[in-house]
Amino acid sequence: MSEPAPVTLLNAEGASPFVLLCEHASNHIPARLGALGLPPAELSRHIAWDIGAAELARRLSALLDAPLFLAGVSRLVIDLNRPPGVPTSIPERSEDTAIPGNLGLGVEERAAREGAWFHPFHVAVAALLDRRQAAGAPTLVVGVHSFTPRFQGVDRPWHAGVLFGEAEVFGRALAAAIGADPSLVVGENEPYRIEPGVHDYTVPVHGDARGLDAALIEVRQDLLADAAEIEAWALRLASALGVAAGRSP
Questions:
Q1: Structure confidence by residue, pLDDT tens digits, 145-187
Q2: pLDDT at residue 33 tops 90
Q3: Alpha helix positions (H), the chain
Q4: Which of these, 2, 57, 211, 219, is most buried using a 10 Å CB contact count?
Q5: List of E strands, the chain
């Protein structure tokens, strides 16, 4: 059986100013890695991927007419939103679960994973952004993610969060636009904060370093449990992104 591509680009010529990334779209473990020594039940958990994020990103891409990059490998193999070399890039433990196939990896195996999955994904993203910037096309970079309702024994009260680095105007406008619905609790830089060189790659590299507005959208995964909920969130986020882009300098 052939392995999925490290990256799938949908709607490459989309007219939207938004370029969407879903770095945790897949829970696929390549056959040569033997499921990293994990049982199937672990690979269905959030530790392996962002549950519901790929479906949400696909609907957003269609609604916005936006290019979308989808990852083809689980973040347990290599996390495409972490700088290579940091401990969480190829995690030996995720939440409360040890990852046997990641223990004690040598330089050669780490480089092989970076070359097979990390670099192809980000080279493809960079190439599209290069073309758009060369053409003078307005461009905003948005990562689409989901998060667990509870982490390490602590409840997370947010329905959604917007994470940003240097693009504070865009990030805060996006959070405000989503939070215009009084029934929602929306966090700024929640459920975690972007730390360039430590926790994140997409926003610092593809956004901030290029001078492009960039943010990650996080939606609580229990709110993406079926197609109707995903559609509702896609419509909500498409509207909010349009509002936020209009407020961005």
A1: 999 988 777 888 999 999 999 999 999 999 999 999 999 999 9
A2: yes
A3: 40-43, 53-64, 107-113, 119-134, 168-178, 227-247
A4: 57
A5: 7-10, 18-22, 68-71, 93-94, 97-98, 140-147, 150-151, 154-155, 160-164, 186-188, 213-220
